[in-house]
Amino acid sequence: MVIRPIREEELGTLVNLWKDSGLPFRPEGRDRMDRLSQQRKDDPDLFIGAFEKGTMIGAVIASDDGRKGWINRLAVLPAFRRKGVGIDLVEESEKVLRKRERKVFAILIEGDNRASEDLFVGAGYKREDDIIYYVKRDDEAF
Ligand SMILES: CC(C)(COP(=O)(O)OP(=O)(O)OC[C@H]1O[C@@H](n2cnc3c(N)ncnc32)[C@H](O)[C@@H]1OP(=O)(O)O)[C@@H](O)C(=O)NCCC(=O)NCCS
Q1: Which residue range forms the structural domain that includes residue 57?
Q2: Rounded CA gap, 92 and 72, in Å?
Q3: For residues 36 and 79, what is the distance between their CA atoms, to the nearest angstrom?
Q4: What is the DSSP string of the chain?
Q5: Into how many domains does the chain fold?
Q6: Mean per-residue pLDDT for 2-29?
Q7: Is residue 29 a part of any domain in this protein?
Q8: For the segment 37-46, what is each residue's pLDDT rounded down to a tens digit?
Q9: Position 19 in a domain
């Protein structure tokens, strides 16, 4: 398996990977192709894919808000799960973010996603039960 940045021409494959992995996405909002393309151009190192014989089998988008590093949109194709691909993508994200001097890494996980919770606990993340996520949307598509 090779872990490397995702190229511009692979963004369509990335979206298909989200679909095949059952990861909800916002095709009319922040996951619209032109927005993904711009986001990748702004920070190409943060779009990370796992490839087996040239096929994208997993991916993650890291982000850096200047204070924390965030792990977003982690997904692995069902046929390749439980082989450590998810963990490898998280570790690669942390590596890239550490190069930017980030020392805190964070993830938002939906309450019923046990697989993801177990993965991040295994990767050393601590659950913060006293934080409640609030969000305000100017546009519901986002
Ligand atoms: C969550 C996801 C990315 C895990 O990918 P993966 O490649 O299977 O993960 P790994 O093989 O690296 O798993 C590492 C550890 O995570 C935990 N884990 C992973 N999948 C699990 C599952 N279905 N149930 C329980 N624990 C699980 C285990 O502790 C596992 O270690 P083990 O296999 O030695 O027991 C994958 O299931 C997926 O794409 N899910 C759909 C999309 C999603 O929910 N993404 C996360 C958004 S926050």
Answers
A1: 2-122
A2: 13
A3: 25
A4: -EEEEPPGGGHHHHHHHHHHHT----TTTTTSHHHHHHHHHH-GGGEEEEEETTEEEEEEEEEE-SS-EEEEEEEE-GGGTTSSHHHHHHHHHHHHHHHTT---EE----TT-HHHHHHHHHTT----TT-------SSTT-
A5: 1
A6: 96
A7: yes
A8: 999 999 999 9
A9: yes
CA-angle at 17, arms to 111 and 140, nearest 5°: 55
- Please report whether residue 129 resides in a domain: no
Residues with CB under 6 A from ligand 1: 21-23, 74-76, 81-87, 109, 113-116, 118-119, 122
Q: Whose CA is nearest to atom 27 of ligand 1?
A: 115
> Binning pLDDT at 50, 70 and 90, where does residue 141 land?
confident
Contacts of 25 (CB under 8 A, 6+ apart): 15, 18, 19, 31, 73
Residue 11 lies in a domain: yes
Nearest CA to ligand 1 atom 30: 119
Which CATH number characterizes residue 118's domain? 3.40.630.30
